[in-house]
Amino acid sequence: MDGTESAGTVPGPDDRAFPAHHAPGCAGLGELDALVTRCRACPRLVAWREETAEVKRAAFQDEEYWGRPVPGFGPPDATVAVVGLAPAAHGGNRTGRMFTGDAAGDFLFAALHSVGLASQPSSVRPGDGLTLRGVRLTSPVHCAPPANRPTPGERDTCRAWLSAELDLLSPGLRAVVVLGGFGWQALFTVLADAGWRVPRPRPAFGHGAHVVLPATARRQELHLLGSYHPSQRNTFTGRLTMPMLVGVLREAAGLGGLPAP
Question: What is d(CA 144, CA 243) in angstroms, rounded to the nearest whole number?
Fold first, then answer.
């Protein structure tokens, strides 16, 4: 317990203890998502997300940016989770929905739709009719970071949100697709904290990596699947192709007990 809590003061949104104090007590994903959007615990990320929301990209000058932390997106009974890196400055930070409004999201939603996990192949903005089936999208860091690179400290401060989200999903969660090495490393720490037995040494990240965490007294068996992140750098160079991502998502859907389209 830190000095703030011992004095009887509950950490506010600007306090670095805010996520760790509030996230574990959330009774449902709706409450968690609402609290995520209030968080201001990382000063560098707060400054960047708000500056980006003011100094807009030319193509979006007429839009009002979200400019806050971006909560997870998807149904509370999801059996599959997809874990990325962080919202994009002019994607999720603009639209307020995970993976929505940027090229990486366009690639991901097209793949999700082909596997039957998304109702449409594009994700433009909240209210565009998109729904997800059996899958929840989230990330280790909920604010857009400069140069798409959160610091280890920012990752650790934000960890309580992901831990609480996976805990709330855990009764039905069967598989997690991790997009990129940053999410892969972050996720193993979260899962160990949450009561899963994580192998040591920790498995290396790679596209197509598949790790099975055995059931414990608290947790059921969980499958972790690795995929390269659908960044433009990866998709333009062919490091990640649509069939490659679709293959990983199809495997996850099968492990999650979701019927093929």
Answer: 28
Instruction: Write the single-letter amino acid at 2.
Output: D
Which residues does residue 135 pair with via DSSP β-bridges, in sequence order?
A: 80
Write the secondary structure of the chain as one string of H (helix), E (strand) and C (coil): CCHHHHCCCCCCCCCCCHHHHHHHHCCCHHHHHHHHCCCCCCHHHHHHHHHHHHCCCHHHCCCCCCCCCCCCECCCCCCEEEECCCCCCCCHHHHCCCCCCCHHHHHHHHHHHHCCCECCCCCCCCCCCCCECCEEEECCCCCCCHHHCCCHHHHHHHHHHHHHHHHHHCCCCCEEEEECHHHHHHHHHHHHHCCCCCCCCCCCCCCCCEEEECCCCCCCCEEEEEECCCCHHHHHHCCCCHHHHHHHHHHHHHHCCCCCC
Share of the chain above pLDDT 90, in %: 93
Q: Give the pairing of strands 80-83 and 175-179.
A: parallel
CB 72 within 8 A of CB 137: yes
Name the token pair of 27. Answer: 């009774």
**Conformation bin of residue 153: beta by default, left when phi > 0, alpha when psi is -120 to 50:** alpha
Render pLDDT for 84-94 as a digit per residue (tens, 0 to 9). 999 999 999 99
* Angle of CA points 170, 253, 204, to nearest 5°: 75
Tokens representing 235 are 């998709």
- Per the CB < 8 A criterion, the answer to whether 154 and 186 are in contact is no
Q: How confident is residue 261, by pLDDT bands cut at 50, 70 and 90? A: confident
